[in-house]
Automatic annotation (TrEMBL):
Belongs to the purine permeases (TC 2.A.7.14) family. The keyword Cytoplasm does not apply. It comes from Prunus yedoensis var. nudiflora. This is Probable purine permease. Signal peptide: none annotated. Residues 338-356 have a biased composition (Basic and acidic residues). The lineage of its organism: Eukaryota, Viridiplantae, Streptophyta, Embryophyta, Tracheophyta. SUPFAM superfamilies: Multidrug resistance efflux transporter EmrE (SSF103481). It is a multi-pass membrane protein. The chain crosses the membrane at residues 16-40, 52-70, 82-102, 114-138, 145-165, 177-198, 210-235, 255-277, 284-305, 311-330. GO terms for cellular component: membrane. Pfam families: PUNUT.
Length: 366
């Protein structure tokens, strides 16, 4: 009975953590692009600064790491280590962090040139790349339901890209628009590679992956991504320009700094949510959750920035919801099948244990 109770407890904790991660990812996915676009709409034009803000909130992660440490200390005693990460895992996390820093720049460049509505192009490509790299790197198994979800979500997001030219910012040249488009697609491809790469790191790590360790991995990744973007800011003289840009910001100098701080915090919820879902489930699910949140981001962009809500966005919303339901229906169905299989395996094991005893009795009977 005890192992059964422990399994149920772990399953409940995993479910709670997965729900929390989905909430965090929802805040980051919807809020991040909107706040970043707010910066560019009202006078901000520093791409390296915007990319730096995507991971610059990494010190926030020290809070959950400290809480996890005190929790471990209550059970393990004073000898508990503050950090669990070993050198090979640190190096792997640092490399992924540098790749993430490059991806941050590509994404920020795209957002600076394109309206929020064209984030559909990012999500459409990102989900397809995530599925591809998840298959190649971590041998992700696809069911008919998960395949259906990927196809529907990708088509739904691509539909949003059919009429993006109508939302082109005023005064922007064809060259700038195309550059933003290409940078956006490149960012999608790169982050589609990063998500499965993180999952592969978990699988290949030569130490037990706990959520406390996952937080440390995220801390190192964000730290090195921020270092990458800091170098870009130094080369581009962004630090010197910030005070002048703040004074000229259309919403006021105080609001300028509030926008920067909020951007750093909200983007950190995105990364914490993404790595939490990878830890609890898979990189594919992380990509699917990001994709299904796209229509909500689109609606928020319409509300706050008065972007047009064309028929394509309504179709995309329907397809995205259909894909989301398809994926989770499949997961529920296959989890029930796995539970039934485990029950049958246990019954067979019990029968095997009972069989020798019966045989012994029969031999003693004569």
């Amino acid at each position: 009975m005890e192992p059964n109770h422990e399994e149920k407890r772990n399953a409940s904790l995993n479910r709670a953590l997965l729900i929390l991660s989905c909430v965090l990812l929802s805040i980051g996915t919807c809020g991040g692009p909107l706040i970043m676009r707010l910066y560019f709409i009202h006078g901000g034009n520093r791409v390296w600064l915007s990319s730096w803000l995507e991971t610059g909130g990494w010190p926030i992660i020290f809070v959950p790491i400290a809480l996890a440490y005190y929790h471990r200390r209550t059970t393990e005693g004073p000898s508990t280590k503050l950090f669990l990460m070993k050198l090979p895992l640190f190096i792997a996390s640092a490399v992924i962090g540098l790749i993430t820093g490059l991806d941050d720049y590509l994404y920020a460049y795209g957002v600076a040139r394109l309206p929020v509505s064209t984030s559909a192009l990012i999500i459409a490509a990102q989900l397809a790349f995530t599925a591809l790299f998840a298959f190649l790197l971590v041998k992700q198994k696809f069911t008919s339901y998960s395949t259906n979800a990927v196809v529907l979500l990708t088509i739904g997001a691509a539909v949003l890209g059919l009429n993006t030219s109508a939302d082109r910012p005023k005064g922007e040249s064809d060259k700038e628009y195309i550059a933003g488009f290409l940078m956006t697609v490149a960012a999608a491809a790169l982050y589609g590679f990063v998500l499965p790469l993180v999952e592969l790191t978990y699988k290949k790590a030569k130490q037990t992956i706990t959520f406390a360790l996952v937080l440390e991995i995220q801390l190192v990744m964000c730290l090195f991504a921020t270092i990458f973007c800091t170098v870009g800011m130094l080369i581009n003289n962004d630090f010197k320009v910030i005070p002048r840009e703040a004074r000229n910001f259309e919403l006021g100098e105080g609001t300028y700094y509030v926008v920067l701080v909020l951007s750093a915090i909200v983007w950190q919820t995105f990364f914490l949510g993404a790595i939490g879902i990878i830890f609890c489930a898979s990189s594919l699910l992380s990509g699917i959750v990001i994709a299904v949140l796209l229509p909500i981001t689109e609606i928020l962009a319409v509300i706050f920035y008065h972007e047009k809500f064309q028929a394509e966005k309504g179709v995309a919303l329907a397809l995205s919801l259909w894909g989301f339901v398809s994926y989770f229906y499949g997961e529920i169905k296959y989890s029930k099948q796995r539970e039934n299989e485990k029950k049958k395996e246990k019954e067979i094991e019990i029968e095997k244990k009972d069989t020798p005893e019966t045989a012994d009795v029969c031999q003693l009977d004569p």
